[in-house]
Amino acid sequence: MQVSAAPQNRWGRNWVFILAVAGSTIGLGNVWKFPHLVSENGGGAFLIVYLLCVVLLGAPMMMAELALGRAAHASPIQAIRFAAQENGASKHWALIAITSLLTGFLVFAFYSVVSSWVLAYFFASAAGGLEEAGSQSLEASFAALLYDPLALLIWHSAFVVLVAGVLFKGVRGLDHSIRVLMPALLVLIVFYLIILSFYGNWRAGVEYLRVIDFSTISLSSVITALSHAFFTLSLGLGVLLAYGRYLPDKTDIGQSVMLILLIDAVVGVAFGVLVFGFIEADMVSSSRGPGLLFVSLPFSFDTIGAGNWLAAGFFLMVTIAVWTSTVALLEPLVQATEDTMNCSRRTAVTLVSLMVWAVGVFALLSFNVMESWRIAGMTVFDLLDFVSAKILLPVTALLLVVFVGWQLKPAFLQQALATKPWLFHVWRWLIRFFVPVLLMLIVSSSLNSRF
Length: 451
Ligand code: TRP
Hints:
This protein has 19 helices and no strands. By secondary structure, it is mainly α.
């Protein structure tokens, strides 16, 4: 079942692989969710809890997914099948790969819609369209965009084309794009930190972390931290299986994962500093999510002067962040389509892009034409978010850790991870006992919050 180990099927360099996975993890979660969560949940105290979740839940799961992908050097469905076969487990475990692909498909549908707004704002600000806009008119123009199905359709289509473009040439194309996009992203972040020290309120930026208030940490904030770690680390969607497929056999997965987590955490904190440094704290809590990005930030840049340029650069930075995330989201679907339909990479990319484009259209129409269509009180957009991110995702992950922890043999896993013996033992203990309990906590709280 193993595909050929031809070098064109591998990442060119290990750092490119590390940046590719980091690129998938750095996205909207870091930009608009993390700063808000930290400020609402006890500042630095939440950061500490979150980092613990990353180490205890995120790291072991990320290692497991990468190892499975690499062991088979095949698409996610094949990879799970291969592991099951090698370890004498039932081949029905491949179902995990199918549910994770389905979840990735749904996540892409709502994620790409928001990404296309970011793209629209990049062009609007670069063209000078946000000039002289007060916060009220910025709010009005954001609302106007959401009520304009045609504009949304155009931006959504453009964004899907951008994503498909990167994927078209397989891992070679991916590798080349990451080499440009990720350094550009990191340079932009540093650039904005410098700008902040001149024009923004650097002290306010750091202040939100300096408040360390453990009294606000409750079970529910721990679960929030767990779910956030889970989403921002791109777990449970087959993405890491798909990226792991292209890893050379000798790469130490444990070490690579540590670096990836470090990059994600540093970037997360940097975005927090930027958000709180540029935007007044009370505005941050009142305008979380879309309002933060599309109304408050351009408004702050406008107040500084040179609003359009600063906004354009910022939206370019976020565009890159969501671009590298959405590319990662589609990769497993493309690989699976290539394999199951036995078609070329190009056909697979075209087919998958058309499908996600079509579902995305429903998501974007739910802001205007289809706004009154509700299922269980939710619009299509909210429903996609709820079913995929809150339900399917943790359930799939739970099945995956049970499979890895309880069905696969240590010798197989040790070889698949190619990491240090002590790390392997700690990892295996976490995956068998600790991670499943944490995931059950996430699942039960998502179910409770809705029903
Ligand atoms: N990690 C991304 C973010 O923080 C979102 C995301 C979740 C994702 N799962 C993913 C991206 C899988 C790529 C692949 O915004």
